[in-house]
Amino acid sequence: MSPAHSRNGYSRGIAFLFEIRNTILMTDIRPAPEDYQHIKEKIIGYLARQGFSERKLLQKVTDLKRRYPHVRRYRFYTPAHVRMVLDELKAMGLVDDMKYAREVLRQLRDGQNGLYRIKDKMFRRLIPTAIINAVLREWKESGEGQDYTAIIRETKRKNSRLKEKHPSPNEHYIVKRKLYAFLGQKGYGSDEIREILRQSS
Fold this sequence. Notes:
- By secondary structure, the chain is mostly helical.
- The protein folds into three domains: 3-91, no CATH class; 97-142, no CATH class; 149-200, no CATH class.
- Helix content is 74%, strand content 0%.
- The chain has helices spanning 3-28, 33-49, 54-67, 79-91, 97-108, 115-124, 129-142, 149-165, 172-185, 190-200.
């Protein structure tokens, strides 16, 4: 190896070590007040537009540092610093996974989605599994059933379209099979599918 290659390799190694040191320092120390406030305003800005789980907020804010590595104001958007801000916002009641999970369930439960799809959508919003299960258990124990109005309406429309494509009585099994598949993809269980089809006929 030539001396030039050796020096270049040494320089890159030193630069890498300094980068690691700076990352550790930024993780261990509290950000400056203006940096802390900037993170706080960013999170509150997201929450002003819509609700988010704590994990989703952490993901969204820390992703800014990864996506825009050369933007100075994102330099302190580390997981440790964002968690500091989230802890304060939780204490203020602005970040509350249980409250958010209940709101998401309220929005989804009377739409076209069945329980399995609702649960999947809540999971995709990065709501903790324990909270999802607790909120769904609350709903079940409340005795409030799901309103099937929207999915029955959509099933009737789909049934009409399928019968136009398969008008022969010998093809009715095809229509029924496709409706079962449609409702299964919407997250409904077999008992619910039978009830929706009964009310859709």
